[in-house]
Design brief:
Helices cover 52% and strands 7% of the residues. By secondary structure, it is mostly helical. Strands 1-2-3 form a 3-stranded antiparallel beta sheet. Strands 4-5-6 form a 3-stranded antiparallel beta sheet. The N and C termini lie far apart (60 Å). It binds acetyl coenzyme *A (ACO). The site of acetyl coenzyme *A has 15 residues, from helix 17.
């Protein structure tokens, strides 16, 4: 392919460089378009054809079902590394050495205490507040308690902000859950690892000894690794664009949490569970719902099946299915909703309609049922996703800042009124 793309407007030809990524992805570099053409812009709602940045963090190929962080296949990472090791990789670019990992983990633990005044903010929320709203607000509030994190002028400042956020974010998430449940707010226990800590902070009650189930911990660890980054999705782009104004890391991540909250983004795992509960209420038979999903006159779709980007298979779903199976073997499927999920998966995978359209369960199908099996309530599903995505958001924010990217400020095509004469109030 040529290294130059030509654009002809009114007989005049403009040339733009064609650039390639390391995986041979091709882009037309239109940075010079406005200046060269005297003000012409491109228009691309939803940025479906627009690369907002160059990035070295995540490679994704939907056709071939590839997802890699910093060049490492997620299949290898979930098999061989822990969530925190992968977080180090995603944020700093390389797998940590043993000493780097110990330092990173200890620095996060050192920062796992929240200012006690944060409890006053939690107290102010109604018990029924959605935990995503609480987590977004509390993440923003963290800035007030850690003002030094706003002005990042050195590598040390940057590192400190990162470990602070990694340490405090899961505590906020667990506290939002406790607020909803009316249970005491637990502190981190620094003898536990990152994932174990999330579980004990969410589920431990003072009257009973909390026993961690290693299979459940491993399933959550793998699931959160699979959520660590997914290149320039809605919440990640939000984090980058907010940070591009030099807003602090915590404020930028708070905006990312809000973006993830929407049902078109982080909410699909919740939709899966709601569908399974509907099937249960209807008597538990999956065949009727499979038939509805196949009926072109019925808008119903099987939630958790199919994917916009992954057209052959969702590599994350392949991995997490195994963890889900192990978890079910361990816990048993005494929960009727989980039994329905297993049955639905089996029937759909053997159905010609789904096979012909390559409609496999996606990561949200399994994440929803894993969260359910772990006893996590539906409204906390997107919060769990946010805990998983935190390292990716941090890495993307850091990359944007270190690259010195310009402030994000798209253009528009104005289609409103042209100049109008003002009508005085009494004449309107
Ligand atoms: N149930 C039944 N039929 C489906 C489903 C489904 N879940 N998904 C797609 N199809 C059918 C379509 O009706 C269409 O059939 P046709 O060719 O006979 O007309 C064919 O499969 C292709 O579907 P498209 O709509 O073209 O696929 P698209 O890429 O637009 O949609 C999407 C992908 C939105 C994920 C879709 O599969 C869907 O709605 N799935 C259910 C919701 C879901 O699980 N979302 C989470 C995605 S994962 C994530 O976001 C992290």
């Amino acid at each position: 392919m040529s290294d130059i793309a030509k654009l002809e407007i009114d007989g005049k030809v403009y040339e733009f460089p064609v650039v390639r990524g390391t995986e041979n992805e091709i882009a037309i570099d239109v940075k010079a378009l406005r200046v060269a053409t005297g003000g012409i812009i491109t228009i691309d709602p939803g940025f479906k054809n627009t690369g907002s940045c160059e990035s070295k963090i995540t490679f994704l190929n939907g056709e071939e079902g590839i997802l890699r962080y910093r060049g490492y296949a997620i299949e290898d990472l979930t098999k061989n590394a822990s969530f925190l090791e992968v977080a180090f990789l995603v944020i700093f670019g390389e797998l940590p050495t043993k000493s780097e990992f110990i330092k990173f983990e200890n620095d996060i633990k050192r920062n796992s205490l929240l200012n006690e005044e944060m409890k006053d903010i939690i107290d102010g929320f109604p018990k029924v507040a959605h935990p995503m709203g609480m987590v977004s607000s509390l993440t923003s509030a963290l800035t007030a308690f850690n003002p030094a994190t706003v002005n990042i002028n050195s590598k040390v400042d940057l590192y400190e902000s990162i470990v602070k956020l990694m340490g405090k974010f899961p505590v906020l998430a667990a506290w939002a859950h406790s607020k909803n449940q009316g249970t005491p707010l637990n502190y981190a226990d620094n003898s536990l690892n990152y994932i174990e800590n999330i579980m004990q902070m969410m589920f431990k009650i003072p009257t009973e000894k909390y026993k961690l189930n290693p299979i459940a911990v491993r399933a959550l660890d793998e699931l959160l690794i699979l959520h660590e980054d997914h290149e320039q999705n809605c919440s990640t782009s939000t984090v980058r664009i907010v940070g591009s104004s030099e807003a602090g890391l915590f404020a930028s991540i708070s905006a990312g949490v809000s973006a993830l909250w929407g049902r078109l983004h982080g909410g699909a795992n919740q939709a899966v569970l709601e569908m399974l509960e509907d099937i249960q209420k209807d008597g538990g038979g999956v065949e009727k719902f499979i038939a509805k999903a196949k009926d072109k006159n019925d808008p119903f779709r099987l939630m958790g099946f199919g994917h916009r980007v992954y057209k052959n298979f969702d590599p994350r779903a392949r991995i997490i299915k195994k963890a889900a199976d192990e978890l079910f073997d361990d816990l048993g499927t005494s929960d009727p909703v989980l039994a329905i999920a297993k049955h639905l998966e089996e029937v759909a995978l053997n159905d010609e309609y789904f096979a012909a359209r390559k409609l496999y369960p996606n990561v949200d199908f399994y994440s929803g049922i894993i969260y359910r099996a772990l006893g996590i309530p539906v409204e906390m599903f997107t919060v769990m996703f946010a805990i998983g995505r935190l390292p990716g958001w941090i890495a993307q924010w850091k990359e944007m800042r270190l690259n010195g990217e310009p402030i994000g400020r798209p253009r528009q095509l104005y289609t409103g009124h042209t100049l109008r004469e003002f009508i005085p109030f009494e004449k309107r």
